[in-house]
Design goal:
This protein has 245 residues and is of the alpha+beta class. The chain has helices at 9-16, 18-24, 122-127, 151-155, 207-211; strands at 45-46, 65-66, 74-79, 85-88, 98-105, 110-119, 136-141, 146-150, 160-165, 168-169, 179-181, 194-200, 223-227, 235-237. β3 (74-79) and β4 (85-88) form a beta hairpin. The radius of gyration is 17 Å and the shape is globular. The protein binds the ligand Nc1nc2c(c(=O)[nH]1)N[C@H]1C(S)=C(S)[C@@H](COP(=O)(O)O)O[C@H]1N2 and molybdenum atom (MO). The ligand Nc1nc2c(c(=O)[nH]1)N[C@H]1C(S)=C(S)[C@@H](COP(=O)(O)O)O[C@H]1N2 is lined by residues 57-62, 104, 106, 141, 143, 145, 174-175, 187-188, 190-193.
């Protein structure tokens, strides 16, 4: 596991320390990536990788995790609800599905576009209605990643609880069996490999906004993007979801 964990960002932060990490944050995306091997292909584990076929759509995981077995997986919805619910993998198949094409934009500069298929958050609310004081959901993921999204963001027409990417089930790398796609927010607000959704009554910091210079809101700001499909050629973006390319 030490070798597998070698290149996780957690370790990067541990090694460099908070302030130094902030200072070099802008340099990170282009460093070391060209020869970075894929440690996870053909193993029981999955983690951060940018090599091989993932050159066109990077994979971020907070720490390496064991691949999820759909027979063992369940989704718990709890916190501020009088009707907590537990879903199995088969339950996911009964939701009304819809698809959208959108760009996932990581705050570390890169972005990539895909077609995502899934169901609206309203389906979750029907099963486990949030109490009145609920303002958002804290997502708990299989790699111990945590991220918060407001009810407003989750109820937005462009936000989906995603099970499929480019017309195939999500791969372990991209968050099988369930992730959020919220295309007007940075990638870190798109939690993968979700195990639990917890209704909470206050804005909660997620894994990245706790340690990095990243806002807890995570709305994409005006700036520069480096889309992977276009050779990372810099493009100006106006903020919000990227529709232009
Ligand atoms: N469980 C989990 N979800 C996560 C992350 C993570 O580390 N763990 N990283 C986030 C970040 S920073 C980004 S940019 C996107 C990347 O999605 P991808 O790995 O499918 O490209 O996943 C987000 N969801
Ligand atoms: Mo990211």
């Amino acid at each position: 596991m030490r070798a597998l964990g070698k290149l996780t960002r957690r370790r990067f932060f541990r090694i460099t320390g908070g302030l130094a990490a902030l200072a070099t944050a802008a340099l990170r995306p282009t460093k070391t990536l060209a020869n970075e091997p894929n440690y996870f292909e053909g193993t029981d584990f999955v983690g951060k990788t940018r090599a091989g076929r993932y050159r066109d759509f990077y994979i971020n995981y907070w720490q390496p995790m064991r691949r999820i077995d759909p027979a063992q997986w369940s989704l718990t919805i709890n916190g501020l609800t009088e009707r907590p619910a537990t879903l199995t993998f088969d339950d996911l198949k009964h939701f009304p599905m819809q698809s959208m094409n959108s760009r996932l934009k990581c705050v570390e500069c890169w972005s990539a576009r895909a077609t995502w298929t899934g169901f609206p958050f309203s389906e979750i609310e029907k099963l486990a209605p949030p109490k009145l004081e609920t303002v958002g959901v804290l997502f708990h993921c299989a790699d111990e990643y945590k991220e918060y999204l407001s009810l407003d963001a989750l109820r937005h027409a462009r936000t989906l609880m995603v099970t499929h990417m480019n017309n195939a089930p999500l791969t372990d790398e991209h968050g099988f069996p369930l992730r959020v796609i919220c295309p007007f927010k940075y990638g870190y607000k798109n939690p993968k490999a979700i195990l639990r959704m917890e209704y909470v009554d206050r804005v909660t910091y997620g894994t990245w906004s706790k340690i990095g210079p990243y806002s807890p809101d995570g709305t994409i700001l005006p700036g520069t993007d480096h889309p992977l499909e276009f050779g990372k050629q810099p493009r100006r973006i106006p903020g919000g979801e990227i529709f232009d390319y």
